[in-house]
Amino acid sequence: MTDFTRVVFLFFLAFSAWAAPCTNPGKRRAWHTFSNNEKLDYINAELCLMKKPASLGLPGAKTRFDEFQAIHQLQAYATHFVGAFLPFHRALLAAHETALRNECSYTGYQPYWYEQRDAGKFKSSIIFDATYGFGGDGSGAKGCITTGPFANYTNALGPAYQNTDHCIDRRINDMMSQSSSQREVDACLAKKDWISAWNCIEAMPHAGGHAGVGGQMQNGVSSPGDPLFYLHHTWLDKIWWDWQAKDRTKRVAEMGGTNIAPDNSPGFPPRPASIPRPTGADGDPGTTTTLNHVLNMYGNAPNRTIGEVMDIQGNVLCYEYVEPSS
Ligand SMILES: *[C@@H]1O[C@H](CO)[C@@H](O)[C@H](O)[C@H]1NC(C)=O
Ligand SMILES: *[C@@H]1O[C@H](CO)[C@@H](O)[C@H](O)[C@H]1NC(C)=O
Ligand SMILES: [Cu+2]
Question: Residue 79: which domain range?
Fold first, then answer.
């Protein structure tokens, strides 16, 4: 290369890096469109996190898998019923996906559970397949799952704020799963502003997956003890993104809502006196959630601000959602 072409080339590189930081977004696809081999790759990567010992010193966590659950458990009251709800879960999903890829040789991306396909009939969903899925419903007095790749995993965190060894439990409820229907999704997508969209997603599709699976998944504090949590919340993240993409420039900057969760929220485990009432105002100047709000990843990944995760194809995140039909 001559000096001139080298300069042009370097200039081009610098320019393309500046103009398009996310040139090759990871493809997040629906679980039911995965081939059997792709399903096993994901399951095996999750099993790998479950076998790796914890190293961050988070209370009660024994494995890498537990450490991601701990991020959620430790700040449940600072991340639900507040403006940070969807941004926090977006950052948590990205941290978990990165760990699967960087620590467990997973070469795919985080799948989502296209729940409207199964709404009202979760019990017959292929997601609960024992061989190419997450195992079935719970059974017995404790509702422990007994089939599938995660049947023998011992959760060390939960239920709620307790840290006790227990099984992954489920109590699948088809009626509750109706809140994940296409009708409910469409209702949220039609909302005109952030506060309405977030409240709609948290109240309906969010509740549909958690209460439709039941057991561990229904526990607002310790729900990431069931690996299905990640597929459920990735679907919610897609709904938020689909809403954002309808008016992208405006909606990747649209934040707000309280940063102080109501103390005993309905359907949410009560906060024990030993857990201090979160003030929520981490990086926010007042009681309203802003783009400067810090999302604490407890050492599992770099902390993020809400502003950094608003766009899924920005400087920090780089993925896209593939529709199941394509
Ligand atoms: C779980 O443990 C039981 C009893 O030890 C064993 O038969 C079964 O194969 C194990 N299942 C998995 C998925 O590891
Ligand atoms: C992450 O954020 C929390 C809360 O603001 C803070 O206490 C912690 O020190 C931060 N961690 C890092 C590595 O910056
Ligand atoms: Cu949550």
Answer: 22-321
